[in-house]
Amino acid sequence: MIRPLARRLVWALTTLIVVYVITFVMVVMVPGNPFQQSDRSMPIEVEHALRARYSMDNNWLYFWEFLGGAVRLDFGPSFTYNDWTCTQIVSQALPISAMIGVLAILFAVLVGVPLGVISAARRNSWLDVSIVSGVLIGISLPTFVSGVVLLTVFAVAWPILPIGGWGTIKHLPLPVITLSLPFIAYICRLTRSAMLDVLGSDYIRTALAKGVSPHQVIWTHALKVAFLPVLSYLGPATAQAVTGSFVVEKVFGVPGMGQHFVNAALNADAGLIMSTVLVFSVLLIFLNLAIDVLYAWLDPRIGLTI
Amino acid sequence: MTAFHPFTWVASALAVVVTYAYLNSTKEAPADFRYVNSSGIHTLDPARMSWTQDFRVALNIWEGLTTSDPRTTKPQAGAAIFPPLVSADQLTYIFTIREDARWSNGDPVLAGDFIRGWRRCMEPGTGTDYTFLFTDNLAGAADYVSWRRKAAGALTTLDRLRQGWEIDAQAAQSLAHHPVFEVIKPSLSLRSTIIDQHDNHSASLGLARQLNTSNLNWQALYQQTFDQHVAQMDQRFSNVGLEATDDKTLLVRLLRPCPYFLDLTSFPSFLPCHPSVELLREGDVDSGLTREGLVVYDPQWTKPRGIRNGYPGLITNGPYFVSDWKFKQRLRMSANPFHRMFDTLNVRTIDMLVYENTSVAIMAYEAGEVDFLPGMDVPYDHELARLSQTGQRRDFLMCDTFSTYFMSFNCKDERIEDRPNPFIDARVRKAFALAVDKEAIVHAVLQRGDRVATTFIPPGALTGYPSPVGSQMDIAAAKQLLIEAGYPQGQGLPTVTLLYVPSDERVCQALAGMWETHLGARVELRCQETKSFAESKANHRFMIARGNWYGDYYDPTTFLDCFNTGNGNNDSGYSNTAYDALLHRARVTTDIAQRLELLAQAERIIVEDDLPIIPLLHYASPIAVKPNVSGIFPNPRLRFPFRYVSVAR
Q: In the CATH scheme, what is the code of domain B63-140+240-274?
């Protein structure tokens, strides 16, 4: 267990470095003067001195300085939002996105898995058909549509929740539900097909033959195995959810991480682009690793491989 | 049996997170007055800001020597007694700071605080877009700033050389423009030193190569240059026309009579700065400069709470101070207990909320969650304009802004992307301008209630200014001009590239259609996102490009200076000695009416004869104010001083 884990960690670090190099190259290739935030031109000597001040006149120097800072969690200044460092921006935005993301994933598991189980257990019934079609809608409906629909219903037509913003518990339900819809759909589908496989296997028939109640067979014996594909999906899904969704944040005015991925790129804000990409990569890589460890622990036959 | 129950785990995890969220949620009362800023604050540093939404916050938390009237935005009393003493030659202003002017920590506001604030706008490193307001108007400021900038450029290059880093052509140029180059020159070959005037790129590259391989003692040279520069700084700055004759008296000497100077002093660049900011100064302790010769402060100085060096957090002198600031979420302003208006302020707390999506902001406004929207830039803005104009929504108000949207021609480069540039010929520019149906663009394409523009400066905005008539659509004249220029029916015209940003799509398609139909021109539409667009424009890689301009102060020069030869904002590269001469004569003329007449003549050149631009429209900006809010007035500069606002609840 220890050696494969160490090997995986080495791979994780290598991946991170590759991500950093690729992002860095793209960032320095982007046109534009990051210090110029308006239409007005800047004296050439001042631009030159400012670039030097932030080590941006020399790509090698900038590469190592940013990397050195990133290791100490100091991502340098944002050039679009002069008064904030990238670390401050990420550390204010990430907890907000993480809160919404974690809630959305938990909610999605709580709703998606039972739906999948029911749908598989009642295969081809009207219940199955309606769940499957609901899932299809859930997967195909973009969040900017579902979000606006929810907003119109619960904040405008029947104003029990605020329209947007952040700060109180009332700001949570709409973005969480909107974000969870596609995850619910996907988890439901995964559970359903895994359940269908499992329900046909010998040990289920044995359990049923021994007189165990169908309810217990489905919800305990079968689900224990059918949950594994869902678990492996939860790694990347959680990483994606906790780093924020641009659309959900924009629709509900949530000050999370998602907006920075897009805005930083549009503003050519070098430091912010690299810090958001690195934070996302770290989360993605390590959540995947954590899920794999969990997986190996739940199903010792699988083991931890690279 | 201990069955595997994922649900129990998941459900308890959910409960834990929700409880955490509940415990963390704000229990603060909502502010008295809430407004929306759709993109968040870029900076609260008055020396660095250039966005209207940042100005708005700055002008509420700081107070300049003068402030703006909420209806007309004309200058009125601020932190200084109004009006100040002005000498007969209009070159010296003596401001007396009010006895009761106080910072938000109780300190008296002193004349030196204004000098500190103004100097920050001039120093390379802190000053950015608006340094020109000082160099154009204050005696001695231009010399000081150019001396500082050159030094910063040279010190940066020397610093790189002493560290053994390779320098590039630009860095070499920066060094060549500084007196220290005279010391370096003898050790270089003669050819590479002849780049003084023309900034020839290959010459600079050659110079860079020589400097990189030279074995001069760069460390000594750097130190000597740095020390000399620091030693001269105070004496050089004393030549700038700024003097605190005593604690409360500020004497300002101008370069030339400036009829709009009191308007300028209400602009954010002219705000004072509390001495505590010096606790966060970066760089060398003795000189206060960075290695590059820049003046730099820890950007954290604008935060309400300090985090290091005993810095107390942002101290301001306006009717409000920043009491809380969460990035892209909320900025709360609270009444400043030391401000003279403290007792009379109706609105004690203000929340600036950030909604990235303006449509959501409008929904929040409709739901009563916010009281004021200072801008509504949405794809359906024409619908909002209609609701306002038909009187269906009395709370939607239109502000005719002090701004112009235009297309500018590249008047400089003879070839663009291997195509001859027809627009170096004024007749071709005029033909293209006369073929544009501006009425159609404003009333049929955009329908936002903007005003059709025939001039560069919005007519009527400046009292006493005799606006020229400008050019009207005239297809026949346009065709005739093209014939005269040698392109009958557009024959022989190269394909014209029209450069713009995504928001101009519909206007540019309409323009291309008009030029194709009326002039027989082939137009290639080229849309770029803003950063690439800025780069293309700055490098003159366009034939026609979109542009807009918002006037900064109430004087024609805020617009007309853009077309002065060599002006940093002269994107079209337009140059006309008659135009420059008129602007120059206006600069030295003391008679107000005569000065405005000269400026009007200059404007006539660019909107009737030479047409480096096609003025299309003057923006109308819709705002929304709840009926129970009073004290917000539509104004051309979108300044909304909140000290006059009251909310009936």
A: 3.90.76.10
